[in-house]
Amino acid sequence: MDNLTLALRQLDQALDKLGQILQVEYQLLVTVPLQPVALQGVTHDKSQQLSAVAHYDALRQRAEIDCGLRAPYARHPDLDDLWARIQVRTRDLHEQNRRNGVSLEAQMAHVRSLSAVIKALAPQQMFYCADGASHHGMRLQNLDINA
Questions:
Q1: Tally of structural domains, the chain
Q2: CATH number where 89 lies
Q3: What residues pair up with 134 in beta bridges, in sequence order?
Q4: Per the confidence metrics, is the pTM higher than 0.70?
Q5: 52-79, pLDDT tens digit by residue?
């Protein structure tokens, strides 16, 4: 039963860290301007942490088989409390991840609309001058992407 307790504690800690990552991800998604490099790093961290959660859950399932227990653990109050906390945290993280997905979709819609504006303004040829400004034919375009 020690292996089950250890697996549950590791799973709880992994979920806690995942929650921290999801909070950082949300802050990046609502920050203007968007920081794509930072967001990519957080997405990588999130993916790794989800793998860790899956690993600890697999350890939990193996430990359950080894000691002949199944969740919830009504006859073992310490395990039952830990499992209840894991269940609540999992539901909360699911909702937090859903909210992040909505924010990400809003960012993607914004990028798509900017892309459509740029395509509409772009003639067949674009020229870049020495000052770094882009010129469309003889017309100078100044686009504010933060608008």
A1: 1
A2: 1.10.132
A3: 128
A4: yes
A5: 999 999 999 999 999 999 999 999 999 9
